[in-house]
Write a structure and sequence with these properties.
Bound molecules: adenosine-5'-diphosphate
Helix content: 25-40%
Strand order of the largest sheet: 2-1-4-5
Oligomer: single chain
Distance between the termini: 15 Å
Structural class: alpha/beta
Radius of gyration: 17 Å
Order of helices and strands: EEEHEEHEHHHEHEH
């Protein structure tokens, strides 16, 4: 499903972020990318989502060589990925429901009833049905992360990429979030989580 063949990434300023990475991630795998800050975890995820392109090597996702992908095809490819990143925050000027509706409309959903049903389904999945009319600032950090996860699930992507999803939340809430990702994985999704929190890996064994 995700294949890296001898992939290296050097940033324009000369930083070698990744060197000679070869690996395969299969459909339905639960994978942690671990390492200290600066190890290259975010770069790895950004290469998968085509936010960055490799300096050399080949990246194949679902049998498509994404290194050869035209710029215009990137948004289409992204629709197959749910993204939980620190810099993809909720829009602060609208409530939870409107945040989710915004994403659906931006990805072509038009039918009001279908939109409502989809939003209810993803909020139910993350246990946040009660909070749909709250504004982001009225939610705790952990609740916001659950909404970010709900947002990532909207278009039922086969792959979920999470970069330090538990970065700003307390240990107990972190565990619950990873448990949720684990449950989502059990429905056949591929989950890739970058983290420097080794306790998460001990508690939720994955690859
Ligand atoms: P991690 O997610 O493990 O903290 P990153 O992938 O963010 O690691 O960074 C890996 C290395 O690449 C670091 O040395 C970082 O400073 C560098 N780096 C990351 N992004 C850029 C960028 N846009 N330009 C230059 N260097 C970068």
């Amino acid at each position: 499903m995700i294949d890296f063949i001898n992939v290296s990434k050097t940033y324009p300023n000369g930083t070698h972020a990744l060197y000679g990475i070869t690996l395969s991630i299969d459909k339905g795998e639960f994978v942690f990318i671990v390492g200290a800050s600066g190890a290259g975890k975010s770069t790895f995820l950004k290469l998968i989502m085509h936010e960055e392109t490799p300096t050399s090597g080949k990246i194949v996702i679902n049998d498509t060589d994404v290194t050869k992908l035209r710029r215009s095809k990137v948004p289409y490819m992204r629709r197959h990925m749910g993204i939980v990143f620190q810099d993809f925050k909720l829009l602060i000027d609208r409530n939870v429901y409107a945040n989710l509706e915004f994403v659906l409309r931006a990805t072509g959903w038009k039918n009001k009833k279908a939109i409502r049903e989809r939003i209810e389904t993803v909020l139910d999945k993350v246990g946040m049905s009660e909070k749909q009319y709250q504004m982001p600032h009225q939610l705790s950090g952990g609740e916001q992360q659950r909404i970010v996860l709900a947002r990532a699930l909207l278009n039922a992507p086969p792959i979920i990429l999470a970069d330090e999803p538990t970065g700003n939340i307390d240990p107990e809430t972190s565990y619950r979030l990873v448990e949720l990702l684990r449950e989502i994985c059990d429905t056949g999704k591929t989950i890739v989580i970058a983290t420097h929190q080794y306790d998460l890996i001990e508690k939720y064994p994955g690859r």
